[in-house]
Design brief:
163 residues; mainly alpha; 5 helices; 71% helix
Length: 163
């Protein structure tokens, strides 16, 4: 006869508790289990009785606590609530400060990058300006001295004149 294995969800359904409660009891009471290939906890059918016993013990414990009449005063609850609110506000301030620090750090890093790019751009502009100057210098033909005299110009003009 093959053994029947139950998953956490199956046991939780039988006990009418959540699967998280079953897992908490497994760890607290060291109930034996195996894991299947998917990582799910699997229990032998005999362990269901152990789970029912744990549930009965917990119910007895909670019933005794209710019967003892120990109640928490509303002042204590309000003090605890105020303390929790103060902690919450402190944590919110810490989160805001941390966010501000992160944004400041990012801005500083971006500013450094922009400054580096600006320096590179300035260098490139200077190079382009030097290259334009060199190009203009090469394109300008040197001025030849004007050695033609008035006589030579008149002679040339007379050669082409027809009377």
């Amino acid at each position: 006869m093959t053994e029947q294995w139950l998953k956490t969800k199956d046991i939780a359904n039988q006990l009418n508790v959540s699967p998280a409660t079953v897992l908490k009891w497994v760890k607290k009471h060291h109930i034996p289990y195996t894991e299947n290939g998917y990582g799910h906890y699997c229990f032998k059918e005999e362990t269901v009785a152990d789970f029912f016993e744990i549930k009965r013990e917990n119910q007895k414990l909670y019933a005794r606590e209710r019967e003892s009449g120990e109640t928490v005063s509303s002042a204590a609850v309000m003090d605890r609530l105020a303390e929790t609110e103060n902690k919450l506000h402190m944590l919110e301030r810490m989160i805001v400060n941390k966010a501000d620090d992160i944004v400041t750090f990012q801005l500083v890093e971006h500013r450094k990058k922009v400054e580096a790019l600006s320096k590179q751009l300035d260098k490139m502009e200077q190079k382009v300006q030097r290259m334009e100057e060199q190009y203009q210098y090469q394109q300008t033909p040197p001025k030849a001295p004007n050695k033609q005299t008035k006589k030579a110009r008149n002679l040339l003009a007379s050669l082409f004149l027809f009377d």
